[in-house]
Amino acid sequence: MSTKTKMKDITKTKNTEVAEYIGSLFAFNSSLKLYHWHVTGKGSYAQHMALDQAIDDLLDVIDRITETSIAMLGDLDIVIPETKTPTDIVKHVTDFYNCAEAGRELFTEAFTQSIIDDYVEAIQQLRYRLIRLQ
Q: Residue 29 sits in a domain of what CATH number?
């Protein structure tokens, strides 16, 4: 296998991994919206507003990381995984924070790391609001 072929395979693998990561970000955002539509009861207004703000904040960052990745890697075959309504929103957000952090290794430049920083910050802000503001 030539060096050129190996580099092409590495690029294809990275593109696939980045596309899968971005698809998971979109799915997470959709899961927040699904939960948002079902919020009722005590503290529901605060939860509703926290989710609304997070959905908007996260979508902006998803757009930035997607467009930056396409600029750097070329076209990406992004597929959004099936999305279900979470039952325990705090656990769901906490678990996804860990997934978002795990994907950080795909982005090695300081400016892409900064975009991921903005994403995980928005998740932590949502966790704070869901837990503390009722």
A: 1.20.1260.10
